[in-house]
# Entry
Amino acid sequence: MTATIASDELNAALIAGVIPNLGSYPHGQLTGIHSGKKKQGTRMLKLECPTCGMVIRTTKTWLEQTGQPICACDGQSVFEEDEGGE
Ligand SMILES: [Zn+2]
# Structure
């Protein structure tokens, strides 16, 4: 056994190099899948097309930045927020 010495250094390098990258991952939080709890933070809004009934989900951020989405069923129906979602 002659090449096992580097493990501590490697671990330190991995921790120093990888963890900060994970911390800045642009997706936001990825935790919660295994906790059994409802996700915190991003709240998905349920939007429904009043014409065809298609349902989509997005976040308030997108509605504020991009505006209400328009359905492809007729190219002009605006998805409306469905307050009765789960
Ligand atoms: Zn539609």
Notes: Residues 6-34+42-81 form one domain. The pocket of zinc ion is lined by residues 49, 51-52, 54, 71, 73, 77 (CB under 6 Å). The CA atoms of residues 9 and 15 lie 10 Å apart. The beta strands are 44-48, 55-59, 80-81.
